[in-house]
Amino acid sequence: MSKSDCERIHKQLSVGEVAKRSGVAVSTLHFYEAKGLIASWRNAGNQRRYTRDVLRRVAIIKVAQRTGLPLASIRDALKTLPEGHKPTAADWRRLSASWREELNARIAGLTQLRDQLDHCIGCGCLSLDECPLRNPWDELAEQGPGPHLLDPDEESLD
Amino acid sequence: MSKSDCERIHKQLSVGEVAKRSGVAVSTLHFYEAKGLIASWRNAGNQRRYTRDVLRRVAIIKVAQRTGLPLASIRDALKTLPEGHKPTAADWRRLSASWREELNARIAGLTQLRDQLDHCIGCGCLSLDECPLRNPWDELAEQGPGPHLLDPDEESLD
DNA sequence: TCTTGACCTAAAGCAATATTGAGGTTTTAC
DNA sequence: GTAAAACCTCAATATTGCTTTAGGTCAAGA
């Protein structure tokens, strides 16, 4: 039986095949498995075997990482997929909807930052008690990190 | 002489004062100094002393980090500031201009990702050879990472 | 059969960005 | 003068996301 027969006949993928098709290193697949993001079973010789499903999962992982999500969050999101059957389009849609919100939030944050950069650094002011760049904590309670005035007569850094 | 006299009279800041005013931990200031992002001199008792300038630098560092820049890049950017005199508004403007481009690129990337997420994951297709989410490498040469077809008869993951 | 490539595990290493701890000194406040 | 708070250095630890190494097993092709 030839190597690619492994996949063509049994619809199983070896770790090397998954690596080539998904574009990630074998060591990364091991790593993702250890972290609970993907799963496999073993053949008689203790080698990993995957269903083709894993290709989509790896693709999703890589896409989600580009949004800035840490692997732990991606793992948790993937855990919400059904156990028994192959995820449906609706399952994936649900995942993508939550990530879309994440993305929108990050885009909004960066956009605001860019505009503030124009106004605040551009003009060189960066006044400690007025600049939104310096005080993105405005809405938070007194507790928490952030710059604090020590003297009431403090107005600016310059 | 009281503690705050250190600053009010001599216009110097201790590391603790900088920490409180800038909102970062003392250990972080040590760390930034070791990495060449900020500078200080020592008093007779070997304690760090800072000019008020450092407050602006720390503010800039924190802002730049929010754009996604690594500290090494921020350090390099800060190195372009004049050595002898206090940076002018024009100096800061030059820095912010380069970071604005970075930001625009990141915003564009995330926006594109969000739209592709809508089209590709939302519908559940993720076709290996067509989906832009799966193949953001389209413009790169053959070499390099990325998913590759092993069989010409491969069309989709499903 | 034999060799080579693919695979296995477990541990260590790396880069970035800090935080924590130990053990000692200095400054401040009363 | 003394005690507490702040400071010092250096080393270790933590987290995230992997890669590398070492030492061995398994499988595929000539």
TrEMBL record, chains A, B:
Keywords: 2Fe-2S, Activator, DNA-binding, Iron, Iron-sulfur, Metal-binding, Transcription, Transcription regulation. InterPro entries: DNA-bd_dom_put_sf, MerR-type_HTH_dom, MerR_fam, Redox-sen_tscrpt-act_SoxR, Tscrpt_reg_MerR_DNA-bd. PROSITE patterns: HTH_MERR_1, HTH_MERR_2. CDD domains: HTH_SoxR (cd01110). Pfam families: MerR, MerR-DNA-bind. One of its GO terms (molecular function) is DNA binding. Residues 12-80 form the HTH merR-type domain. It comes from the Bacteria. Transmembrane segments: none annotated. GO terms for biological process: response to oxidative stress. Homodimer. This is Redox-sensitive transcriptional activator SoxR. It comes from Modicisalibacter muralis.
